[in-house]
Amino acid sequence: MFFTKTLVLSLAALAAAHPGHEQEEKRQAIAARSTMAANKRALDNCAASLNKRGLHSAAAERRQAEVERQRISRGLPINNGRVKRSSVEKRNTTDVLAKDHQGTLDGQRAINDELYVFQDEKCTVLNPQGEVGPFYVPGEYIRSDLRENELGVEIFIDAQFIDVNTCEPIVGGWFDVWNCNSTGVYTGIQSDMNGNGDDASNLNNTALRGIQQTDENGVVQFLSMFPGHYSGRVNHMHVVFHTEATVLPNGTLTGGNVPHIGQFFWDQDLIDTVEATAPYNINNQSVTLNSEDHVFGEQETEGSDSDPVFNYVYLGDDITDGLFTWIVVGINTSASYTPTYSFELTEGGGVAVDGQDGGGFPA
């Protein structure tokens, strides 16, 4: 696919080129947290409207049907596997850490029980971080399958976005995601902070990165791989949400507004189970737990009701059969943030922006 420099939002390159952009990101994050409570109140007021419109029941049916499709595609029994009913009450950091987002359901139970598993009647307003760290790469593929040749545990992601201002699904928005691979290495960049800093070929690697547009229900779906860990960070996924962006003829994105920048996580016991499998178990970098991760605590959950942890089900009896994960997110579409980055994908491949090497930013 032909690439051009894309998603170059106002002042992004300028911010990346100057030492003060980290302070600007932190200022944005503080401003975002100050409006968090108001956003949550607005979303709480949407509950009756969303229920009346049948959004939650339709979402449960969609998730259940997608799990069936994923099981069939893997040659697994349709009504089998470990399934979890997750409470979606909002909590502080300690309670989010203690909350179990996965459970079990006897595969022989009636299908309506499984629908109950996928019924989420609330959604979470996440704390916008206002910062993306050094590993954001604008100009990536608009696509749903991000796996390429990466190994590990497959994850199917179902994310739904609600506008807290209108109580309506966000239609036509763009969900931009990326995470490291099973051994803690990000594609699309070259840095001593990231695997082999001498590997220039990694600049042109696009695995585990992609963008998808929300449908009429505000839903985006991806097929990716569960991320590994690296020193100082627990397993996590980076997310940016764009509105009013334009699709270029080459299938990439440009312009628009960014009302949310943040990260998603998984339960610690699920992470531990994944990390015990190959190739995650050859990663010898130091381990950081959710309870120790600065982003999970300080930026995403501390002093708020944010719950940035995926709900999930096993697709089969074993973790290696893959996972179906979902989350419902309320976003204030009137907010605006400026992503900074150190690398981008261009028509000539991946390049460093203004000689930045990604050092010194939260990752």
TrEMBL record:
Coiled coil: none annotated. Residues 146-233 form the Intradiol ring-cleavage dioxygenases domain. GO terms for molecular function: ferric iron binding; oxidoreductase activity, acting on single donors with incorporation of molecular oxygen, incorporation of two atoms of oxygen. Residues 1-17 form the signal peptide. The keyword Signal applies. Keywords: Signal. This is Intradiol ring-cleavage dioxygenases domain-containing protein. It comes from Xylaria grammica.
